[in-house]
Amino acid sequence: MTTITLPKTLTFAVALALTGCAKSYLVLLEDHDGSTGKVIFSGAGSETVVEQAGYGAALDNSKTVFKVEQEKINKDFGRALASEPVLPEIFLLYFETGGTKLTAESAALIPKIIETAGKHPAADISVIGHTDTVGDAGKNEKLANERAVQVSKLFDASKMDVKEVAVTSHGEKNLLIKTGDETSEPRNRRVEVTIR
């Protein structure tokens, strides 16, 4: 029996029962964030380690690690890779103090956010408003909601394939940067946009 150990979350592909005399093998692929883990599999007194993207090993205990050309990866695993869901993407938009005006840097992200939402079929979007701890907690709850509602208007369902836009306010709860009360912290004045 062959044991496969995966020490890190990673993407790998295993081809089983290929045509004719072709052998079953696995190939390590680069993860979505560009990292590569490693695969260790052992059996019959041997151990094989694959730790470089684009390299594979036969599942016959041969201990041989070999380069797998992208064309072969596409041929053998293309359909499986194409069926992977689009990963969620998270954006943080920051605001000027006390209001709903985006910082210049955050305003510049709007086209990228719209483009990303367009790439997700039937996008499910979460928009969560936050504030820092300056001022009354009740007013901050309301301000965070106003910020989230303002950002949610970017996702006009008539212009893109949006399944749902959920808007919530966390006010001064769930601080990105933990602070005491009455502390002005620009990174806490934000809206989190998650596109799935």
UniProtKB/TrEMBL annotation:
Keywords: Membrane
CDD domains reported for this sequence: OmpA_C-like
Top-rank taxon: Bacteria
Gene3D superfamilies according to UniProt: OmpA-like domain
Lineage: Bacteria, Pseudomonadati, Pseudomonadota, Gammaproteobacteria, Methylococcales
Protein name in the entry: OmpA-like domain-containing protein
Stored InterPro entries: Bact_OuterMem_StrucFunc, OmpA-like, OmpA-like_sf
Gene Ontology, cellular component aspect: membrane
